[in-house]
Design a protein that fits this description.
Elements: E1 10-12, H1 20-24, H2 29-40, E2 42-46, E3 50-55, E4 61-66, E5 70-76, H3 79-84, E6 86-93, E7 100-107, H4 109-125
Antiparallel strand pairs: 1-2, 2-3, 3-4, 5-6, 6-7
Length: 126
């Protein structure tokens, strides 16, 4: 949907570890289909000036936040997620609309936060 000519810094999809229990019980077809569906239905893209979260396969939802508008980044990890090095990220703005971006089960969430923070510092200097 968003084919940009600008340089993409990062594109992240949920880790397969986030769907571990679905895969363990993969002999049951339904959990396997659910895991495949959920893993394919979320993509987080970090561009030099914005973060885009695209969710859904049949119906799409796109949240596009300017990096300079992001004032809060929250990372949460359960014990199992810490073992698998995955986590949940929540980014929020303080504007009138107060948009919020929530992505669950992403690999290396601290690295994603570092990239967003570095881009924010770079954009704030200019």
């Amino acid at each position: 949907m968003f084919e940009d000519t600008e340089d993409l810094l990062l594109e992240v999809e949920p880790s397969w570890w986030h769907y571990f229990w679905y895969l363990v019980f993969g002999w049951l077809l339904i959990p396997l289909v659910i895991a495949l569906w959920k893993q394919a239905s979320l993509t987080l893209r970090v561009y030099p000036d914005r973060v885009v979260l695209e969710t859904g396969l049949v119906s799409k939802r796109v949240v596009d936040l300017a990096i300079t508008d992001i004032n809060t980044v929250e990372i949460s990890q359960s014990f199992f997620q810490r073992l698998c090095r995955i986590g949940n990220i929540k980014m929020a703005t303080s504007g009138l609309e107060g948009y919020e971006l929530v992505a669950r089960g992403l690999p290396n969430p601290k690295r994603i936060n570092e990239i967003v923070a570095a881009q924010r510092r770079k954009l704030m200097k200019t």
